[in-house]
Amino acid sequence: MSDYALLARQLETLLDTRDWLTNAAQTCAFLTHEIGDLNWVGFYLQRQPRTLVLGPFQGLPACNPIPFDKGVCGAAATTRRTQRVADVHAFPGHIACDAASRSELVVPIMHDGELWGVLDLDSPRPERFSEDDQRGIERLMEIFSAASDLTKPCNVTG
User: Fold this and answer.
1) Which domain holds residue 79?
2) Which of 96, 129, 146, 155 sits between 20 and 30 A of 86, alpha carbons compared?
3) Does residue 158 fall inside a structural domain?
4) Is residue 130 part of a domain?
5) Dihedrals φ, ψ of 117, to 5°?
6) Do β-strands 40-48 and 66-67 pair in parallel, antiparallel, or remain unpaired?
7) Cα within 13 Å of Cα(141), Cβ side
8) Is 118 a member of any domain?
9) What does the alpha-carbon distance between residue 153 and residue 134 come to, in Å, rounded to a whole number?
10) pLDDT tens for each residue of 6-51
11) Does position 153 have pLDDT exceeding 80, yes or no?
C-alpha cells in the first residue's frame, strides 16, 4: 500500500517548473517508480474534439488516438469522473493496448472547467486499484495541475 501523503510531498518538490510537458514526464516517471504493480503510466491529452491523443508516458508503446466513446480513458473523458476498473476485460469497449493489463485507473484532469486530459494507470494485476489508490492518485493529479500551466495548443471544445 502506498503512502500517498508522502508521495504528495515528494511530487510537490519534484515539480519545480510550470512547464506542463516537463511536469507530465516527471510525474509519469515518478509514479512508475513509486507505485507498485504498474505496467503503464501516462497522460492522454484532449487536443482534438472528443478525442484524446497520447502524451508523456512510461511503458510499452500505446494506443493513439482514443475517441471519447472508446475504452476506460474515453469513459473518464466523457464523464469527467475517475474510472476504477477491477477487470478491464469485463469493461465494455476496452481498448487492449497491452494484453498484460488487467486493471486500470483513469483520472480526468480539468483546467478552467474544461477537460485538459487524463492520467491512465494500468496494472497486470486484477483489482489492483483500491479506493485509497483512487483518492491518492486524484490528489497527486491536483498537485500536478496546480504546479503546471495547463494550456491547450489549439481551440478544442469537448
Assistant:
1) 4-147
2) 146
3) no
4) yes
5) 175, -165
6) unpaired
7) 25
8) yes
9) 29
10) 999 999 999 999 999 999 999 999 999 999 999 999 999 998 899 9
11) no
Instruction: Report pLDDT digits (tens) over 33-42.
Output: 999 999 999 9
- pTM for this prediction: 0.94
Q: Is residue 157 part of a domain?
A: no
In the chain, the percentage of residues whose pLDDT exceeds 70 is 96
Q: CA-CA distances (angstroms) from residue 72 to 49, 105, 112? A: 17, 8, 23
CA–CA gap between residue 18 and residue 132 (Å, rounded): 28
Can the peptide bond before residue 126 be classed as cis, meaning omega within 30 degrees of 0?
no
Domain harbouring 32, CATH code: 3.30.450.40
How many structural domains compose the chain? 1
Sequence letter at residue 35: I
Cell of 41: 503510466
